[in-house]
Design a protein that fits this description.
- It contains 14 helices and 16 strands.
- The radius of gyration is 24 Å and the shape is globular.
- Strand 11, helix 11 and strand 12 form a beta-alpha-beta unit.
- The protein has three domains: 192 residues, Rossmann fold, CATH 3.40.50.1100; 101 residues, Rossmann fold; 142 residues, CBS-domain.
- Helix 1 packs across helix 5 and helix 5 packs across helix 6.
- The protein is 31% helix and 17% strand.
- The longest helix is centred in the middle third of the chain and has 17 residues.
- By secondary structure, it is of the alpha/beta class.
Length: 472
């Protein structure tokens, strides 16, 4: 048998790398076939969850750490610090571990348990802080990270929101990859807008290389301020720009260049979750919530296009980080979202019928005296984050509950938000009735009823138990 000399080729082209960080990037494009039924344009998903850390944020993490090393801001033996909703933290901890740094990550309390577990598995020290704080609050995620970076010897704050290396990572890698992979045929680029790094860097490159022919489309949660929303909370992680009503100055990230975006598509949580579930069932793609937002926007755009158009949409991360949320019937049902699996019995909405009453809530800024007037005929009411206007109440913005007894000794001119007790139980209209009854336990009095994450009614706990008995 003749023994041949091995061919001389670049090791990286064979998937052989000297470090895990060398494996970041060069993610595949995969055509969407079934969710695009009736659409003549070609739609490709760029699968960023195939990066080593599981998300598009690996790119920015590597670029930011390299830039800090080159500038001397991050020294050997130092500590990488960041405030993040999770994915950037995972990318930073992966790169930090590979390059010999410690990592400290601050996340909001709405971050999925899987992401927090990933951070800790990579050796990060994780600080969980309440989400929904105004940006000037000392416990706001980024402010906690800034403080820790200053306190820790050798600490370096990644600062993804304002770090130019964030969009630069995509200007030099993601954009060129898409152009090369589509052989210059891409006509529309779609990505969610969070820190803005991905859409800014990629969009700028594609616009430049195509002479302005490629259109960049931002996918934004319906209530995010980027697309003109009022900033109230939503349930899809890692995308959009929340605005607390007490925020003194709303500052957008320097990483986001709005002029790069040709149009913004505002996507509801329900739209995102519906597409998310379809991708898993119909395309074999188990992806994260922000991917649902982005693909929903891409499909909306693609429906207006012709057979010569090519749409590329960024799929930022995997659904494996959200199994306890977006693919979990109990989480979905409690908030009244469409279920992933068909319910095994009657659901709250059908069983309650008309027994719920219109939602009554107490804004956190009203006085104790004013709140007392609202509580004359009920033992308790939800206290919610006070916002201007008359928009829907989001369950995530319920701060707690208040009843006459709790206010009996409080000064009349105190804000009622200073006297809240534990929140009332929440049940969703899509939730299995047996699950709802088990969760409210022996609670007496009003229960919040939610649909699509928003408060739609108050119901008496006894009515829910009675309905469960009737549907056995």
């Amino acid at each position: 048998m003749t023994i041949l000399d091995p061919p001389t080729v670049d090791a990286a082209s064979l998937g052989v790398y000297d470090s895990i960080t060398d494996a970041i990037g060069n993610t595949p494009l995969v055509r969407l076939n079934r969710v695009t039924e009736g659409i003549s344009a070609t739609v490709y998903a760029k699968l960023e969850f195939l990066n080593p850390g599981g998300s598009v944020k690996d790119r920015a993490a590597l670029a930011m750490i390299r830039a800090a090393e080159e500038s001397g801001e991050l020294l050997p033996g130092g500590t990488v610090v960041e405030g993040t909703s999770g994915n950037t933290g995972v990318g930073l901890t992966l790169v930090a571990a590979a390059r010999g740094y410690r990592s400290v990550v601050v996340v909001p309390d709405k971050t999925s348990a899987e992401k927090i577990g990933l951070l800790r598995a990579h050796g990060a020290q994780v600080h969980v802080t309440p989400g929904g704080r105004p940006s000037h609050h000392p416990e706001f995620v980024r402010n906690v990270a800034i403080r820790l970076a200053a306190e820790i010897p050798g600490g370096w704050l990644a600062g993804q929101y304002d770090n130019p290396a964030n969009p630069d990572a995509h200007r030099t890698t993601t954009g060129p990859e898409i152009w090369r992979q589509t052989q210059g045929r891409v006509t529309h680029f779609v990505a969610g807008v969070g820190t803005g790094g991905t859409i800014t860097g990629t969009g700028e490159f594609l616009a430049e290389v195509s002479g302005g022919a490629v259109q960049t489309v931002g996918a934004d949660p319906e209530t995010s301020v980027y697309g003109g929303g009022d900033g109230r909370a939503w349930y899809i992680e890692s995308v959009g720009h929340f605005l607390h009503p007490q925020t003194e100055t709303d500052e957008w990230p320097d990483s986001y260049h709005p002029d790069v975006v040709d149009r913004l598509e505002r996507i509801t949580d329900v739209e995102a979750l519906t597409v998310l579930h379809r991708l898993a069932r119909e395309e074999g793609l188990l992806v994260g919530g922000s991917a649902g937002t982005a693909v929903a926007a891409a499909l909306r755009v693609a429906r207006t296009l012709g057979p010569d158009d090519v749409v590329v949409v960024i799929v930022p991360d995997s659904g494996r980080a959200y199994l306890s949320k977006y693919f979990d019937n109990e989480w979905l049902g409690r908030l009244g979202f469409p279920l992933y699996h068909a319910p095994s019995g009657p659901v709250v909405g059908d069983a309650l019928g008309g027994r719920g009453i219109a939602p009554r809530t107490v804004p956190s800024t009203v006085t104790v005296a004013e709140a007392g007037d609202l509580l004359t005929d009920t033992p308790a009411l939800p206290v919610v984050l006070a916002r201007p206007g008359t928009g829907p109440i989001v369950v995530a913005e319920i701060l707690g509950a208040v009843g006459p007894e709790a206010l009996s000794d409080a000064p009349d001119d105190d804000p009622v938000g200073a006297h809240v007790a534990q929140p009332l139980p929440v049940v969703g209209v899509t939730e299995e009735l047996s699950v709802a009854v088990r969760r409210i336990g022996g609670h007496r009095g009003p229960v919040v009823v939610a649909e699509a994450g928003r408060v739609v009614a108050l119901a008496d706990a006894d009515d829910i138990r009675t309905a469960a008995g009737e549907h056995r």
